[in-house]
Amino acid sequence: MSSAELISQVGSNSLGLSKEDIARLNEAYRPLNFEQRIRRLYEDFEAGKVLVTSSFAATSAYFLHIISSIRPEQVIHFINTGFHFTETLNYKEFLSQKYNLKVEDIVPDAHHHAYSVSEQLWDKDPDLCCSANKVQPLEEVKENYHVWVSSLMGWQTEHRASLEIFEERRGIIKFNPMIDVAREERDAYIRNHDLPFHPLVDEGYSSIGCTHCTVKGEGRAGRWQGKEKTECGLHL
Prior knowledge:
- Helices cover 42% and strands 11% of the residues.
- By secondary structure, the protein is an alpha/beta fold.
- It has one domain: Rossmann fold (3-Layer(aba) Sandwich), CATH 3.40.50.620.
């Protein structure tokens, strides 16, 4: 049975997929490369129900270059926490113009954000800060979609290394088409297509999030330095 036939069995509601169905999707997509997986996704799922998010971080150009070349009309959602580096916001605008992206900001509740600022939650309770400014705002948007496309790669963290291409994650089918892309493969694509890195990469930032929780460092070492935290919570 093809994955398209599998999807059609549950109509437009991808949440009807069982664990066995998701396992069959993983089996069907595993032999494909990143670009092939994206193309097939739009064949197997209703395009209007595909949620794509980007942090416009270190090497987002790779992910967005592929997405925009396959489906130019795809809306890219950006979680604007209010704590981003100016360089990140400028990078977002640059890539949006370069690839003619349709970008929509997801913003936190104004009261929750104000509380984060007044209490400096990024220091006192970073999990709550991420929840208020990133996780909860996205949860509200996810209700309108069936499948969520992320740009996670397995080599980034131990948690991400354990993820499959498809998984069910808090009420939505999560699609991780880059999960087995090697760092060298990603960097080669960026070089070969002359794609722009985030401007802070040249300054020693490998993983770029909010200003309060990001310092220079290799891999994820520069995130939440001095704390046990390694993930914002979006992908847990």
